[in-house]
Design a protein that fits this description.
Elements (H helix, E strand, L loop, with lengths): L2 H28 L6 H9 L10 H9 L24
Helix pairs in contact: 2-3
Length: 88
């Protein structure tokens, strides 16, 4: 597909998602409570969307994922939380 065709097909969906992210960030900023590693990881991943050369998906997933290779002895929760608590 050409750039024009991709934009015609996907721009409105991507625009909607971007507005959803902005609304999510505004709600978090207004909310009370302690800082959370998930939003810290989210905020660190945002700049990875800029830049050139492709590979954005891989970089964002890597930023939100547990980089360790050794299995843990016992799970600390019943479900995935979407970000690694040991991140930067």
């Amino acid at each position: 597909m050409t750039r024009r065709e991709l934009l015609d097909l996907y721009f409105m969906e991507a625009r909607s998602k971007l507005i959803d992210v902005a609304a999510f960030m505004d709600r978090l900023e207004r909310a009370e409570g302690e800082a959370d590693f998930r939003f810290a990881a989210f905020a660190q991943a945002l700049p990875l969307l800029q830049g050139q050369g492709g590979g954005r998906v891989e970089r964002v997933l890597a930023a939100l994922s547990d980089p360790t290779e050794d299995p843990i002895a016992v799970a600390t929760s019943k479900a995935a939380c979407g970000a690694w608590p040991g991140g930067k």
